[in-house]
Design brief:
- By secondary structure, this protein is α/β, with parallel strands linked by helices.
- It has a domain at about 100-170.
- The protein has helices at about 70-75, 115-125, 130-145, 160-170, 190-205, 215-225, 250-255, 260-275; strands at about 10-20, 25, 35, 40-55, 55-60, 85-90, 90, 100-105, 175-180, 210-215, 225-230, 235-240.
- A six-stranded mixed beta sheet has the order 8-9-10-5-11-12, sandwiched between helices. A four-stranded antiparallel beta sheet has the order 4-1-6-7, with helices on one face.
- It is globular, with a radius of gyration of 20 Å.
Length: about 300
């Protein structure tokens, strides 16, 4: 996709702020760890602002602990923000949105269900009829290259195949936006590269809007139309970098030798590894009143 294309904004983030209370680490019944009332809250995100257009592929990258996973969960509605608004299709997101599909860091498949039944699970919860959900699940598994593996259980599938099932499960629900949180991070280098190429092929067919969190610089540049670079905690937008590589993307080995890839990789590396201006301490985020052990 041409990043200058005149397409409508589908997802917007305005002034997103998030912080967590520090905890003692000791369990407090079902409520999790006990908070430390004497300790100030830890800021995780501070005034994050950016937009994503229809059919755009946006990668989010930044130093470890800068709040990437927290951010994508706020986009989905899994976590609340202290301040700011997420809008999807012009409406504020206040709860997990059915208009978003979520692919997690680990596939999270139900071990007692086959690949087919794992993909059908979300459709079951929506009350879709058995024949229809079977049809949709089969189409999704075909799309991700798992024809013939419908009746395999998760333990019979490789890590890459499990992630394909997770992707099929998200696509089967027909989301407007696909949110992906480091979905290939646990895979070996060769499988990871194959999955990147497969994702690009799938996205050419489905034309989904994608927000893709990653810690891998090459992955971000190879996949994305634009890369949102976050500064170190508290995470905030350091810069948004346009990636002017051709679509459809050539194979990874060819793309990574292009001058545009090399230049943008060097720029983003510099942004990540050069300290950003500190957040203004005179404009703190209001204290958070919930306890969370969520990884940022």
């Amino acid at each position: 996709m041409d990043s200058g294309m005149d397409t409508e904004v589908q997802l917007s983030l305005s002034g997103i702020c998030k912080q967590f209370r520090q905890t003692t680490g000791r369990k407090r019944g079902r409520g999790g760890s006990a908070p430390r009332p004497d300790a100030p809250p830890v800021p995780v995100l501070a005034d994050v602002n950016f937009e994503v257009r229809e059919q755009e592929f946006v990668a989010v990258i930044g130093p470890s602990g800068c709040g990437k996973t927290t951010l994508i969960k706020i986009i989905h509605g899994l976590l609340p923000a202290e301040h700011g608004v997420v809008e999807l299709n012009g409406k504020p997101v206040t709860n997990p949105s059915t208009a978003c599909g979520f692919v997690f860091q680990h596939a999270g498949l139900l071990p007692w269900r086959t690949a087919q039944k794992n993909v059908e699970f979300g459709l079951e919860t929506k009350g879709v009829a058995r024949a229809e959900r079977a049809r949709v699940a089969e189409e999704a598994l075909t799309l991700v290259g798992l024809t013939g593996f419908e009746d395999y259980y998760p333990h019979q599938l490789s890590g890459g195949m499990q992630q394909r099932v997770g992707l099929a499960r998200a696509l089967a629900r027909g989301p407007d936006v696909l949110l992906m949180d480091e979905p290939f991070g646990a895979l070996d280098a060769q499988t990871r590269e194959r999955m990147q190429e497969e994702l690009l092929k799938i996205n050419e067919l489905t034309k989904k809007t994608v927000v893709f969190v990653t810690h891998d610089l090459d992955e971000a540049v190879y996949l994305a139309d634009r890369v949102v670079v976050l500064a170190a905690r508290p995470g905030r937008v350091r810069e948004i970098v346009d990636i002017n590589l051709p679509r459809p993307r050539p194979p990874a080995a060819d793309t990574k030798s292009m001058a545009e890839f090399v230049d943008k990789r060097r720029l983003i590396w510099s942004l990540i590894n050069t300290p950003a201006d500190p957040v203004d301490a005179a404009d703190p985020v209001d204290p958070v009143d919930s306890v969370s052990g969520v990884r940022a």
